[in-house]
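Quick one: examine this chain and its backbone structure tokens and tell me how the chain folds. Here goes:
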Amino acid sequence: MKTKITLFSAILLLMMSMSFAQKKDKKSQSIIAGKTSISKYHSRADLDNMPKGELLTLYIERIEVIVNILPNIAFATKPGVTMESLGIPETKENKNALEDNLKASGEYFDSTIEFQKKILPYSDTSDLIAAILFYEETLKSLHTYDDFKTN
């Protein structure tokens, strides 16, 4: 009987200590979240030979990458950079600001894509190709972003 009480007490104590234990801080959240690269850059000839449905998909993919990277370019151009790695204090206020920014970016992207899927099929194919080429050149220029920094 004493062993049952002792065992029950030990289990109860263990459960209580686990429930009151402080939660460990979760890993720092990346400043750039979501899709951050495209699989292939295209030439005008490649795009001229694609059906409009594929062009629409490429256009939307490029928008997604641009929406995820460009607003945060002053901080990073690649995923994995966190407030901690930049030396930004990880205060509750800063963490909330980052979470709000990521949420707003996601909502903006979702509403933009919803609009694009409805309206973009009416666009002229040559304009769509020009936009894809422009977005790809913009994304290529991110590889040279560090050239503009001076120390």
Observations:
- The first helix runs from residue 2 to 20.
